[in-house]
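Retro notes (design track)

What went well: tokenization of the new backbones is finally stable.
What didn't: we kept losing track of which sequence belonged to which structure.
Fix going forward: every design gets posted as structure first, then sequence, in one message. First example under the new rule, 201 residues:
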């Protein structure tokens, strides 16, 4: 065992001493792959899940349709790093050129990041909505999760308790802007995942 660790240490010392582009791509692939494997291991024991990255952006910037899952999360970013690193590594090793390799790596990483986000959204919807009837939320008090722009100029996000469960939906308002953390009332369900809300007096 000691000789194995010594071999790994010697390899890292000999190969990772200077960070060329090849090694940067390699490092990204290793980092992203390690996170994905770690999450897969946690899922086997029921400890998995995913966290949204706390980014100071509006709901319109990252909304996937129902506000359930953000594009920026641990799993999507890890997926980006993994494919970005692998494609960059392959491109650099194959002498594609620095710029074509960077473009291919970034494009591949971004594509898989959005693909994973949409897959997560799909499965999240199947799991969280289940037999819940969102129309039961009309008239209830909700809390603004991401600000709701005034005068129907965009969508925000709200959380509301339905059948004993906290659910998240998109929201619009014809009144004043509703800041994050403010309480509001759901007055109408405009689509299956969007409500019109108003500020509480």
């Amino acid at each position: 065992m000691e000789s194995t660790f010594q071999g790994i240490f010697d390899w890292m010392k000999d190969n990772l001493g200077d960070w060329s582009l090849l090694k940067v791509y390699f490092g990204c692939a290793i980092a992203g792959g390690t996170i994905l494997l770690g999450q897969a291991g946690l899922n086997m024991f029921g400890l998995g899940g995913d966290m949204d990255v706390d980014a100071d952006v509006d709901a319109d910037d990252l909304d996937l349709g129902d506000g359930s899952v953000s594009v920026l999360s641990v799993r999507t970013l890890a997926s980006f790093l993994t494919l970005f690193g692998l494609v960059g590594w392959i491109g650099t090793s194959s002498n594609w050129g620095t710029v074509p390799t960077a473009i291919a790596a970034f494009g591949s990483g971004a594509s898989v990041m959005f693909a994973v986000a949409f897959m997560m959204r799909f499965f999240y919807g199947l799991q969280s909505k289940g037999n819940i009837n969102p129309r039961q939320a009309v008239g209830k008090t909700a809390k603004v999760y991401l600000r709701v722009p005034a005068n129907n100029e965009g969508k925000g996000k709200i959380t509301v308790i339905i059948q004993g469960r906290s659910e998240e939906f998109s929201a619009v308002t014809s009144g004043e802007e509703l800041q994050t953390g403010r309480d509001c009332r759901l007055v109408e369900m405009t689509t299956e995942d969007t409500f019109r809300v108003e500020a509480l007096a």
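Added context from the reviewer: Residues 98-129 form the longest helix (32 residues).
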